Every structure is written in structure tokens, then in C-alpha cells.
Amino acid sequence: MVGEGVLDLGRFSDPALFVLMSLAGGEKHGYAMMEDIEEVCGTKLGPGTLYGALARLERRALIEPVSSEDRRKPYRLTAAGEVALEKRLGELRNFASVGFARLATT
Amino acid sequence: MRRIARRLVRLYPEAWRERYEEEFIAALEESPATIAVLLDVVLGALDAQVRPQVSDRRFRMVVRLRGSVLAVLWSLVGMVVAGVGFQKMSEYGDFVRAARESAWVGVSFDAVVVGAILALAALLAGGLPVALGAIRGAFVERRRDVPLLFCAPLVCIGLFVGYAFLVTKVVYPAVHPTGVQSPVNVAIFLSIVGAFALAVVVSAGAVSTAVSRVELGEAPFRFALYPAALATLAMGVVLVGTLVWGLALRALTPGLFTGDGGLLSTSTTVNWLAILAVMAISTLVAARAVVRGFSARAGS
Fold first, then answer.
1. Euclidean distance between CA atoms B112 and A96, whole angstroms
2. Beta-carbon neighbour count of residue B154 at 10 Å?
3. Hey, how many other C-beta atoms are within 10 angstroms of the C-beta on B53?
4. Which residue in chain B has the smallest CA separation from A33?
5. Closest CA in chain A for residue B9
6. Do B54 and A59 touch (CB under 8 A)?
7. pTM
């Protein structure tokens, strides 16, 4: 389970990637993630979509809750989460490079 | 709109809600109240139902452990009611004399008392960490209902003591019933027994509800299984003590055993058998719950 990456999430990849990206900037609770994702990625995630992604990521041990007295439980990236995010961003960088290169030749 | 969204959370699977409901509602309360958010919650619930996101195994284990511990609590309720009946019956002078004359009657009565004290001490030992964990969880989750539910046993005891005082010190002297089996005396006795049973059942119900409303995890229940096993053992001691008490009484003074020395001057034998039956059922239920609890614990 821990070894599974973001790519295994199929059509749920995008929200999961946004969450990982958001948590790469530090631990956050649900609503803070929604605001951060909207600001950085321009995508408005609803609470249902966000918690679907959070539950899947937690199950894969890519993120973990931080102990808190607040109802709004914060989350942070695990080491496996950092690796998964790095791998996925690397793939996107290659994808973007190829895309830009092809556009330049047309 | 937010109220509707909160209601829609119930569409999520139970295991999911147990894990995420509180924080999800907190995020929902901060989100704008729009139809898009409502729809997002419905789709999220549908997604969680179709593709379970939370492991059911751990949730089921916690539910089984909690069920086992609460079943022992309810068994103790049965035992307490039967035990109070036994104490009330055996406090009459003839039974006290029999306990002094026969070692078997005396020792078995002492065993009942020791078993009862041990069972209640085990209940406190196992129940306190669960109750403290639940109250702590309630403050974290900002639930007012849970601490209030834990106050219910104190309120029930207070009400019962007040009622019993009123009936025995005010009503009884005023109506002054003639004869043990007179309708007024029977009504007064039954009302006190009923009030006591109601107080015990409401107390146990309130505690059970409080414990079930907070996400406690498995640790306090895993620990509580040991005191629960001890309480069950103590209930067994009470049961055997009551059985030996009756048999020894029958051998020592058959006339007393077959006479009308029971509650409200009814048959001693019938009273003893009824008390024994309730104790036996309570002990069996508790033993079964403890076995199920340990099997769930071993399977984790």
C-alpha cells in the first residue's frame, strides 16, 4: 500500500496531486488546503472531492494527520508522499518539456 | 444549505464517518453554502460508497471491542438488580441467623458480597479510562452532549435517593399501610424497585450512548477487556455464592427455604430461583461478550 503512488489513483489523480502539492508547503487542515489549491492551481475543490482525495492518500500512507485539539485536523506529507510527489512532478516536467519542444517546431 | 450539507454527510459509509465526519463538517462549515458544494458532497458520498476509502477492518474491530465492553456493562446492570434483590431478601432476621449458624450459608453470603465489590471495582478500573477518553474526545470534537450524558448516572442516583427518601420518610408514614402484602405497601415497594431499575438502566444507557458517540480508537477498549474479564469472573463468584447459599439454606432449615421469606413475604424458593436465573443469564452474556472481545482483539 505504501509503495503505491499518486498515479495509481486513476481519475482521482488530480485532486490527490493538488493535495500533495499543497501539503508540500507545510501542514494544513481541510479548508486551508482548499484555499491554497484554489490560489496556486486555480482549481476550486469541494469538500467532498477534497476528503475523497485525503482518504485515499492517507490509506496509501502518503499523508498523515497531525495530532491536534482542533476539530479541523491538519495533515502533513509523509516521506513516501514526498517521493510520490517528486516522481509525479518529474513526469509532468518531462511531459511539459516535450510539449513545449513540439510546439516550438510547429 | 449548510444544514442540508450536514445531513448529506450521513450518505457516507459508517466507517468513513467514524474517521472523517467531524473534520469534514468543520471544512463544510467554512465552505460557501452553494448548490455546487451540496452536489460535491453527494458525489463524494457516492464515490466513498462505491470505492471504500477507509479500511472497514479496523472500524469493525473497534465496534466489536466496544460492543463486548458495553455488553459486560449491561450484564452488570442485570447482576446489580438481581444482587440488590438478593441483599434485600437475605437481610431478614431468619436468614441472618442461618448465616451465623451454618458456615456454608455464611461463607457463601460473604462470597456474594466480595464478588459484587470485585465486579464493581473492575467496572470502575475498565470504565474510567474509557470515560475519560470519551470526555477528552468530546471536548476536542466540541460535543456538549457527551459530558451531559456522563452526568446522567449522577443525576439518576440523586433522583432515586430523593424519591426513595420521599417515599419512605414522607409517604409511607402518612399512608401507614397495614400488612406486608397490602396494596399500598406493594405499590410503594414496587415503585421504589421500579425507580431503582429505571435509574440503573437509564445510567447504563446514557454511558453506552456517550461512549458510542465519540471516536475513541481501540486502545481503551482493548485495555477494558481485562477488567471486563475480571468483572465476569466476579459475577461467576456471585452466581455460585448465591447458588450455594440457597442449597445450604435448604439443607439447614428446609422450612425457611420453602416458606414465605422472600420479597413482600412471597415464596423464598421462587425468589431465590428468579434471582439465580437473572444472575446466570447476566454472567453468561458477560462471558460470551468477553470471549468475543478477546477473539476480536486477537484478530487485529
1. 80
2. 10
3. 24
4. B27
5. A48
6. yes
7. 0.66
